[in-house]
Amino acid sequence: MAFDEWCLENGPDEPVFYLWRNRPSVIVGFNQVAENEVNLDYLREHGILLVRRVTGGGAVYHDLQNLNYSFAGPLHTIDTTLITDALTAMGLDVERTGRNDIFLDGRKISGYARRVWKNRELIHGTLMYDVDIETLTAALNVEGSKLNRKGVASVRSRVTNIKDYLPGIQGIDEFRQALQKILEEQCCAERGELTEQQEAEIERLAAEKFSTPDWILKPKEAD
Description:
Helix content is 37%, strand content 24%. It is of the alpha+beta class and 223 residues long. The protein is globular, with a radius of gyration of 17 Å.
């Protein structure tokens, strides 16, 4: 999340993208109240990390079988169809629905969010490759929520994993490599590297902002 914000505010003048994964984590939206969206006791009991991102939208669950993507660059230089076009090129019959969801075979595989900062923008989202649906459901299951009332069966009927539709891909690493190759051809052919100073800036941002309880637990509007 610190790297996302750094790229939004300090990235190069041309668009960049990167693919990334997290160990089991729940990422809440910029203005969400964590205790209303997340089963905090379950997270503590199972060693699942809680993080707040810089974009709006709902809470999402990540594990190492979920592939995330981020695009950052000057305003109006990022085409939001890049991901769906890349998935289509891989043979998946996907469609964008609503404001920020991607569906496959009538079920959700991705949600994405956007933030504008001055004359720059960040778009990032998830891709469910082989996510543990039961853990996802338990982590986001809070008393009185829609999820609490409907349970795992309902979640399974509304989401799906990409793995089931790409039998020729052997695992998430191969999926990532294939997706990255397509995106490099569509968007950003040159690879960049961070300087030691830039890495230090991002690590400091992670430590002083994104790792603090005030940022993670308290929504921005409550400041």
